[in-house]
């Protein structure tokens, strides 16, 4: 006899309570988000082929608060200091991670995705083009809870608010229609999963920000008809309101839409894809190319694929930007931990594990004799060496996606520079 466990249910705080009282946005942050939404909307509708490009990068799924902060610092360093918008940093830090002109870099803030638990180092993980546009297919088992459930809605929202306040704009996933009610006011752009249902099209038609619909290379006509075109028309539907009640929403329609498509699928049959562009898509629909994760193995091939996009008259005309998976690790424990031996431009101590404050206590002790000072300094030095040896370090392999994502973004920036020259 099969025993079926009874499912558990727990009431959660209403969206309005969390958004307006527990974790509200101040007027300055609201204005910053409105500004970036306007920037993205302008790029979606721009007719200039050499205009600023959109780059969406970051981890596939947010899983660690410290790594996420470090990722935000890296993305902040990539935004151009001469673009004049509020999302840039005042000082450009020297080293490997340099700002790139003519690119608007947003962070992929996926708090609703499941992180794969890889059971062994040899387990293979790759970007999947299935129903979830940035989900993983893995030999390991998926975790049972996304970040916003494991950490709590308030904590997850507070972390995203901190990232926005630091000057980094967010691109949010629309794969969970209920969870996105708690976060949609933070996103500058949303990306719906492949083969999204009618409800997500309804939500996208609200018009609060630009929305990208994920598509396979051979499904452009379907996505154009059932998603992009449908989203432009006013719609009425049932949804969860901010007070937690179900209500009827009537939208105004959203013309700020684009299509996200896998870069490799496009390049494999580029001539056929160009024909589909002309035949199936409206002339004003732009494309965000999903590059996936870049490593030392596939960097050159991915770079060549991107060059093909710039060489193609039809693809370049439709080009909105690129989506790049930069991995889960962003904290440099030591300068030699990443390829190129460079710092990511963030606080070197941020996110590091502190095992004990004993060294600080010793250094703040009253002055001793010269012999006592010598012994004290020796003890502190020995302790610091031991503490450093205990600190976890990311290997070069773990930081490799970040290094090559940064390198690829810089190469894309140079291509745009050459196109504008």
Automatic annotation (TrEMBL):
Pathway: Metabolic intermediate biosynthesis; chorismate biosynthesis; chorismate from D-erythrose 4-phosphate and phosphoenolpyruvate: step 1/7. GO terms for cellular component: cytoplasm. Residues 335-366 are annotated as: Disordered. GO terms for biological process: aromatic amino acid family biosynthetic process. Signal peptide: none annotated. It comes from the Eukaryota. GO terms for molecular function: 3-deoxy-7-phosphoheptulonate synthase activity. PANTHER family: PHOSPHO-2-DEHYDRO-3-DEOXYHEPTONATE ALDOLASE DAHP SYNTHETASE, PHOSPHO-2-DEHYDRO-3-DEOXYHEPTONATE ALDOLASE, TYROSINE-INHIBITED. Stereospecific condensation of phosphoenolpyruvate (PEP) and D-erythrose-4-phosphate (E4P) giving rise to 3-deoxy-D-arabino-heptulosonate-7-phosphate (DAHP). This is 3-deoxy-D-arabino-heptulosonate 7-phosphate synthase.
């Amino acid at each position: 006899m099969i025993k079926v466990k009874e499912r558990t249910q727990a009431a959660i705080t209403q969206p309005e309570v969390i958004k307006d009282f527990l974790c509200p946005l101040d007027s300055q942050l609201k204005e910053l988000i409105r500004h970036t939404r306007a920037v993205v909307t302008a790029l979606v509708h721009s007719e200039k082929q050499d205009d600023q490009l959109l780059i969406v990068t970051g981890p596939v799924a947010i899983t660690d608060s410290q790594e996420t902060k470090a990722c935000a610092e890296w993305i902040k360093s990539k935004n151009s200091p001469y673009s004049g918008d509020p999302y840039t940093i005042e000082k450009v830090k020297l080293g490997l991670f340099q700002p790139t002109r003519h690119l608007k870099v947003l962070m992929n803030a996926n708090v609703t995705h499941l992180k794969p638990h890889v059971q062994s180092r040899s387990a293979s993980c790759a970007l999947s083009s299935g129903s979830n546009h940035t989900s993983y297919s893995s030999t390991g088992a998926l975790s049972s809870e996304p970040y916003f459930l494991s950490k709590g809605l308030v904590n997850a929202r507070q972390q995203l608010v901190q990232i926005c306040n630091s000057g980094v704009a967010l691109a949010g996933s629309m794969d969970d229609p209920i969870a996105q009610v708690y976060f949609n006011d933070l996103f500058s752009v949303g990306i719906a999963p492949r083969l999204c249902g009618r409800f997500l099209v309804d939500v996208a038609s609200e018009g609060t920000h630009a929305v990208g619909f994920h598509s396979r290379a051979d499904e452009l006509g379907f996505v154009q008809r059932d998603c992009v075109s449908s989203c432009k028309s006013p719609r009425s539907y049932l949804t969860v309101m901010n007070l937690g009640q179900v209500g009827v929403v009537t939208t105004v329609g959203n013309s700020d839409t684009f299509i996200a498509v896998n870069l490799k699928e496009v390049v494999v049959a580029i001539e056929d894809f160009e024909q589909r562009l002309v035949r199936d898509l409206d002339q004003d629909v732009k494309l965000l190319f999903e590059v996936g994760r870049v490593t030392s193995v596939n960097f050159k091939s991915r770079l060549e694929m991107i060059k093909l996009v710039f060489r193609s008259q039809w693809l370049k005309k439709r080009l909105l930007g690129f989506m790049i998976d930069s991995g889960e690790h962003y904290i440099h424990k030591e300068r030699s931990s990443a390829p190129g031996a460079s710092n990511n431009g963030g606080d070197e101590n941020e996110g590091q594990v502190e095992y004990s404050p004993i060294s600080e206590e010793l250094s703040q002790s009253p002055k001793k004799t010269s012999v006592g000072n010598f012994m004290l300094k020796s003890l502190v030095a020995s302790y610091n060496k031991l503490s450093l040896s205990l600190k976890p370090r990311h290997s070069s392999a773990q930081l490799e996606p970040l290094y090559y994502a940064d390198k690829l973004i810089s190469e894309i920036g140079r291509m745009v520079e050459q196109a504008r020259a």
